[in-house]
Every structure is written in C-alpha cells, then in structure tokens.
Design a protein that fits this description.
Order of helices and strands: HHEHHHHEEHEHEHHEHEEEEEEE
Strand order of the largest sheet: 12-11-10-9-4-13
Bound molecules: zinc ion
Number of domains: 3
C-alpha cells in the first residue's frame, strides 16, 4: 500500500466527515501537508510544533498560544489517526532543547515490528473490538419534504437551518402542545357536562400527541446533547434503512446531517448497525449485529470510530 494513496483516502474521509477537536485538526494538517510535500517531490516530511500550530489556527490566534501547551498529547493524536487508518502511524521525536525541535511525521505502519502502534491494536484479536465506518454526506436520502434541508449537511444557523427549526420543529411542537391543551380547556369551560365519552377522547388525544412528541421532537432535542441519535422515521422516509442524525461542530458553527454508522461483526462477520442500548445496556446507542442483535453487541465511540464487545460472556471464555 502506498502512503500517498492512503493519506489521500484519510484526507477525503476526514474532510467529508465531521471531526471536532485539536487532535483531529492536527492529524488533518499533517495528512494534507505530507501530501503537499509528496507533490513537491519530498518523500519524508516532518513538521515541528510551531509549524503545526500556525497551520491549524488563524495567524492572530497562533501567535498568542504556546505551541508546547497547545499541542495535543501524542496518545490522542495516535488514537485519532488509528480511527482513520491502521496502515499509517505517527512518528514523533521529542525535541531536546536548543536546536533540536520536536518532529511529527506520518509513515506507513511497520507491520513487522512487534511493538503495537496503538492501544486498540495491542488488544488480543479475540473478536473484541470493531471499527465503524461512516457513510459519506449525501448517501442517505431524507424524506422528500425535508430534502431541501437535509440533503447534504445543514448548518444550524443558516437560512435552511432556521426554516427547518421554525417550521418543522417549533411550529410542530407548538401545535403538538396547544391542541390537547385547547381540547382540555373546551371540556372544562365548555357548555355541556363532562361525560365519559369526552374524557376518553381526551385521553386518546393526549396519548396520540405524546406519541408525536416521542417520535418526532424528542430525538431532535436529545441530539443536542448526545451528538448522535437514531434518525426518526419521518426524517428518512419509509424506504430508507434506519440511520442516524449527527450534530457536530466546525469552526463556522454547528452542523446537522444524516449518516449511517456500520461495522462488521468480529464474531460472525454480520453487519453491525447502531441501535438503542435498551433494555440490557445503559448506553443510549450500541452496535448490534443483524444476525444476533442481543448477543453480538458492541459499544460505540463516535470520535474513535471503534467499539468493544459488551455482549454476554462468550462460550469459550466460560470456565
Ligand atoms: Zn454477529
């Protein structure tokens, strides 16, 4: 495998997929600059700390930070890189005072060496960790009414974002709350006496609107805190397979988009999809294998794009 090809793949992945945080910024910078260096004919490009800081921050900001404290920890960088590729690794040489500066370089992982290059890979290969992949931005088609808003990604504070928020979320939520309330008022202050029939119809209406709240609005509110939730069916349309809504921060604000995270079950090779962790797990989202959804269960880490086995004890492990 050629380093340039692999770096180009990582670059495309990281530019399409949202990544928050300094470590991801640094890795993307290293990937892009190493590729640039290749184009100029330099086969091995190393970067020192202040170069990286100036590459990742706007010039005014970069001048004010201390590169030494700003740089993310080496382990964080390795983890972010490992979430993108297991073929490339970070070669870091610490600076030793005057003249010798710290140096960060990307290189192809040395498969022959015994030393594991990340925590994840040092785990025994017993089918315990899986890697997730994320679909690209326009792979999932939303419900046709929502297509103008969520076709690719949607910036929350943009015309599209505000229209979406006002019409689909606030206006809808208002109706959901006001209609049962008005009905209740009309019963209490209405001319006719309250009878069993009107109480029953009120209960029915409340249940209906509670359902609307649970299915339509609650996931959107949960999204703000959880960053990833299962997309409600009304967003994706009936024909689309289940997928997720993801909200992420970029330098210019918050964005929302439809994605699908999938993995390959290390126990049976089946497709792993994100599902609710209930009832056996406390996590809101877990990866469940479609072949055995309640046994082949994995945790889900959105940032590291990996998960470990959290299902029931495996037969071979029992005494
Ligand atoms: Zn499986």
């Amino acid at each position: 495998m050629d380093l340039a090809d692999e770096l180009a793949r990582i670059k495309e992945n990281m530019t399409n997929a949202p990544f928050d945080g300094k470590a991801a910024d640094v890795i993307l910078f290293l990937v892009c600059e190493t590729l640039n260096a290749f184009e100029r004919g330099i086969t091995s490009a190393g970067f020192e700390r202040s170069q990286i800081v100036y590459g990742c921050l706007p010039a005014g900001e970069a001048a004010q930070v201390d590169p030494k404290t700003w740089m993310p920890k080496e382990a964080q960088l390795r983890r972010v890189l490992a979430s993108q590729s297991n073929l490339v690794e970070l070669d870091y040489k610490q600076g030793r005072g005057r003249g010798i500066l710290s140096n960060y370089r990307l290189k192809l992982a040395d498969r022959t060496s015994e030393e594991p290059c990340s925590e994840e890979e040092s785990l025994p290969q017993t089918g315990r960790t899986i890697r997730y992949v994320r679909t690209s931005a326009n792979e999932i088609k939303p419900f046709f009414l929502l297509r103008p808003f969520l076709k690719k990604e949607m910036k929350n504070r943009s015309v599209r974002g505000v229209i979406f928020l006002l019409f689909f979320v606030l206006f809808g939520a208002l109706i959901t709350a006001v209609v049962p309330f008005l009905l209740l008022l009309s019963l209490v202050f209405g001319p006719s006496a309250v009878d069993l029939k009107s109480i029953l119809s009120l209960v029915f209406v409340f249940m209906l609107f509670w359902l609307v709240w649970r299915l339509v609005y609650e996931p959107l509110i949960r999204l703000i805190d959880s960053r990833v939730v299962q997309a409600p069916a009304w967003i994706t349309g009936i024909l689309e397979d289940p997928c997720e809504l993801e909200m992420y921060r970029q330098s210019d604000g918050q964005w929302t988009r439809l994605v699908r995270f999938t993995g390959e079950c290390t126990l049976c090779g089946g497709r792993v999809e994100l599902k609710s962790g209930k009832p056996e797990h406390a996590y809101p989202l877990v990866g469940r294998c479609i072949n055995s959804p309640h046994s082949h269960v994995y945790s889900f880490d959105r940032m590291l794009m990996s998960g470990s086995y959290i299902g029931p004890p495996l037969p071979m492990e029992q005494p």
